[in-house]
RNA sequence: GCCGGCGUAGCUCAAUUGGCAGAGCAGCUGUUUUGUAAACAGCAGGUUACGGGUUCGAUUCCUGUCGCCGGCUCCA
């Protein structure tokens, strides 16, 4: 049987419960708004939604009344009744109810003559099920918000009102979820980024333009140094290329034709020259490759750059530092022979995994993004796509990494492996990526001289092993809730003199730590120690070195870490302890 | 871009049915020299996002713009 709702049917009890709650929602809405038309209502992560068309728009203030009606239906103990109708019967039923969207779904998605429907009191829905036995089984739910959603996900189709809700097996789980949302709010990188003065988004600079403040920049520079060193160890060569290029370059690569809507309008000059802010770095690195004749002996050639890119994302798509209009990508393009591809892909995956493991990021999954059957969207031959996909799979398999195939998520020039991470609110996004590309080398007629003297075409691997600094930093802020590991924290140690009499000693301590390249502040304010500690805690500083008369006398420090633990230590051993922790990038 | 919500001091929030815009924190100036999460006092801080409208009177009601938040669409 086909899947009418465009979501996967499942027997998982929680999914079934959420799906049933979606029906309950639609049933309640239909009682309160008899003119409404219902679209689809699947379970989703943490809950469910239902898309409905209202004759008058509703807002979140209407959710309370809908939720009350839902509870009333719960108390009525209405059974979920499964029925199988013929196609004609089903069409007649939904036509009678004026449910045009359901008619469209039956016409498009139901195969054969049997149509599975569920009845809950008067409410009838096209649905494969399964469902809970009765509305009384639905105990722990809450409507969350309304949003617009295009019918069947198509921007050109009408926009329905989507009502989101959350649903759980027990009231306690619901309560836990609501508490989780509160906690997530506190970790939000937009909130912490402001509190900790890491970055700013200022409308005077334009939408989606990130200002890295001094402390945020410290973190970023630390990451950059680390990344560049790790890449150097792995044979990457770094380049620096302009943020601008002639528009023709992007016409030749094919990006302009596909993405001009999200590229900045070109700057046009009197002599006819057109310059474009680059939306990606690939064509620049192709120009780097093309500076020389290449022998197969030169390959693989790994060209890396911390490259600034500019994309004119639609205003509604922007989100904090996760989705911006200008970002810096830890980018690289590996030019190699076809039989080097698998090893190079594997190396790129391993590098990305290494970065993630040092940062303590372990909650992510591998998405093998391949083309779908809309052939016009994808450049290149079937053979090239099949070969590229096979090589990505083999690289993943050889590392014993599990992955999920995702049709339609490929780049236009080839399939890719995406590293999918989740933010504090469990929203998923792509961070790192590895892509195999036969198309751009062809478009730019790249060559190398093979062992037998013939001219061959290299394969290009695009890879962002760390991802974009903006997005990754946003992720890290939420991951650590602002309490960065010592090696990344903008201020590693605050020295706190208890009275002014220890100021000189405090500065001695600071100098000593700075001589080990640690980032240190002395809190010389005319405040009480308690106050300085409190402020240090608020900034989530890893260590506070408190120095009073006793410590100054003994050349000690009283170390308080951000968990509140205290220990007395000689200055020497404290200094070497912190320096070691930083050198090892300990978490 | 579309749908819904929200914009009051640097930050977090108040302000009866439309009736003089307030508080805490942060900032500044003093005093205080302190032993592990907030010393005390004073001062200053605003065209209530911005522009129209209704009204004797608008933070409050209507409207347009801008921005932010949550979704949708998109994501090379």
The number of distinct helices, counting runs of at least 4 residues, comes to 18
Q: Going across the major beta sheet, what is the strand order?
A: 11-15-16-23-20-19-17-18
CATH topology of the largest domain: BirA Bifunctional Protein, domain 2
Poorly predicted spans: none
Oligomer: single chain
What best-fitting shape do the alpha-carbon axes yield?
A: globular
Description of the molecule:
The chain is an alpha+beta fold and 587 residues long. The chain folds into three domains: 13-185, Threonyl-trna Synthetase, Chain A, domain 2 (Threonyl-tRNA Synthetase, Chain A, domain 2, 2-Layer Sandwich); 194-480, BirA Bifunctional Protein, domain 2 (2-Layer Sandwich); 493-583, Anticodon-binding domain (Rossmann fold). It contains 18 helices and 28 strands. The strands form seven sheets. The protein has an eight-stranded mixed β-sheet, sandwiched between helices. Strands 1, 2, 3, 7 and 8 form a five-stranded antiparallel β-sheet that branches. It has a five-stranded mixed β-sheet with strand order 25-24-26-27-28, sandwiched between helices. A hairpin with an 8-residue loop joins strand 7 (140-150) and strand 8. Helix 1 crosses helix 2, helix 3 (87-96) runs antiparallel to helix 4 and helix 11 packs across helix 12. The longest helix has 20 residues, at 13-32. It is globular. The model has no long low-confidence stretch (mean pLDDT 94). The protein binds one RNA strand of 76 nucleotides through strand 7, strand 8, helix 6, helix 9 and strand 20.
